[in-house]
Structures are given as structure tokens and as C-alpha cells.
Design brief:
The protein is an alpha/beta fold and about 290 residues long. It has three domains: about 10-90, Winged helix-like DNA-binding domain superfamily/Winged helix DNA-binding domain (Arc Repressor Mutant, subunit A), CATH 1.10.10.10; about 95-165 and about 255-285, D-Maltodextrin-Binding Protein, domain 2 (3-Layer(aba) Sandwich); about 165-255, Periplasmic binding protein-like II (D-Maltodextrin-Binding Protein, domain 2, 3-Layer(aba) Sandwich), CATH 3.40.190. The chain is about 40% helix and about 20% strand. The protein is built from nine helices and eleven strands. The protein has helices at about 10-20, 25-30, 35-50, 65-90, 110-120, 130-140, 190-205, 215-225, 270-285; strands at about 55, 60, 95-100, 125-130, 145-150, 160-170, 180-185, 210-215, 230-235, 240-245, 255-260. The strands form three sheets. Strands 3, 4, 5, 6, 9, 10 and 11 form a seven-stranded mixed sheet that branches. Strands 1-2 form a two-stranded antiparallel ribbon. Helix 5 links the parallel strand 3 (about 95-100) and strand 4 (about 125-130). Residues about 285-294 have low confidence and may be disordered.
Amino acid sequence: MRVPDLEIDLLRAFVAVAETGSFTAAAGVVGRSQSAVSQKVLRLEEILQRRVFDRTSRALSLTRDGERLLVAARRMLEFNDSVVRGLREPDAAGTLRLGICEDFIPGELPKLLARFSRLYPNLHIDLMTGLSCSLLDAYDGGRLDAVIAKKDGNARRGRVIWREPLVWLAAADHRPDGSRPARLVMLPPPCTYRDLMVSALDSVRREWTAACTASSLMGVQAAVAGGLGVTVLGRSFVQPGMQILNAPEHWPALPMTEITVVGEDAETADLVRPLVSFLTESLAGNRSRGPIAP
């Protein structure tokens, strides 16, 4: 008996639904209507003669067969994309000295870089991580070829590739007390987060005190989770042991944060371009975290 083929577009729709958690969100990822995505998943289930999702009026979850398929589907899509890119694009090869700020999707970045290295095995990345200001200084000094960094105030340098809302973060057991000065966890100056916290609290005439100064964003996270105080970070920094504070009378509304890529027009543009394209394509499918700039 001939084994039926698993069509790539069916698998892509299935993975989009599994990763976004809904047919509506998946439609935006694959660029088709909700009904079209639903039909693709139904067609996939017909081919497999297995249900891949348990559907109720309130929830959507993978079946055991769906969980098995998701692992294989991701591998098949990655292989497909690698073959197509290899034939359509020049093979990127060389060493890219890349700086990535600690602000950039900390929970997802390691997986994205690992997948990128499999797609472009001939491109070696010499990676530096740190605060945006330090990375931009290294770029200006010729020590980096490209930088993915937080937007520098009102500067227009670089192209925005990621946006997400800023939030007030505290320990999970934090109990706000508006009668006392806010205890803040900060990075040392100069720091955009620090300046934003101060100006936001000043706007509602809320007194504050620096409860902890940390040298890195990881240190800020640890101090907040440990209950030393409150801080401002992107929503992607929320982790177990933390909560988002939503009392506007004590914690004013905050703007979006923007991440830019600097170096697309440099001599190493041929090496920068595949990485930036890969990141923007990958993040475009992650609607649950934030919109991607065009």
C-alpha cells in the first residue's frame, strides 16, 4: 500500500495552530483565512487517520498523536526551509561578530540561534551579549559587525525588528503599599529602564527609593523574584515567581520597547542579512509575544 505524502503547507498550518494555541492566531502566521487553516488541519487528520487536536468550545490542545506529530513536523519544516534557502540564496559563509542585547526575547533566543546554526552551518557566529549601550560602543569601535540592541532613545539608527510592551514586575507574593515609597530594582546609569521608572513614578508623584542596583538584567530578575523590589522590563522577562503589577494609580502605564538591528549596511551585510531574515521570519510567527516591524 502506498503511503500518502504529508504536504508541507498542511504541516505548516498544523505547527502554527499548535504554537499559537488557536486557529485565528495561526491564520495570521501562515497568511490564510481561519477557515482555510481549519481545512488544512482537517485534511492532515484525514491523511493520518488520527486526530491531532482535542477541540472544545473553550480550549484547544494537542492529542498524544498530535504531540508526536509536532516534533516530526518541526523537523520536516526546518529541513524544507533549509533546502529552499540553500537553492534560492547564496550560501552564507564566514564569521559574523554579533552583539545581542540581554533585552531580546531571553526565553526564545537560544532556541532560535540553535536552529539558525543548523540552517547555516558554514556561518560562524562570534557572539557577544550584554547591555545595549556596551554593544553599540563595541560596534562603533569596530569590534562587532552587527548589533541587535534596544533602540537608543530618539535615535534613528538601525531598523526595528521587535516590539513588546514594558511592564512593572514584582515578586509573586508582592503586596503593594501605596503609602510607602516604591522600592525599585535598577541597573546603574545610564539606563533607559532606570530613567523610565523614575519619570513614570514622578508623573504620578509617587515617591521611590533604590532598593537594589544590579549589574545585569539577570541580576535584576533575581532581585525582583527574590522580593527586593519592583522593576520595569519587557513582558518576555516574566518568569515563575514574578507577577505583573496592574494598578495604574501606583504603577503608571508604560510604552513599548523596541529592538533594532544595526549593521545591515556594513561590509558584512551578506552575513548579517540571513540572520536578520531568519529572526524576523521566526518572530513573525510568535504573535503571542509582540508584533514585528515590517
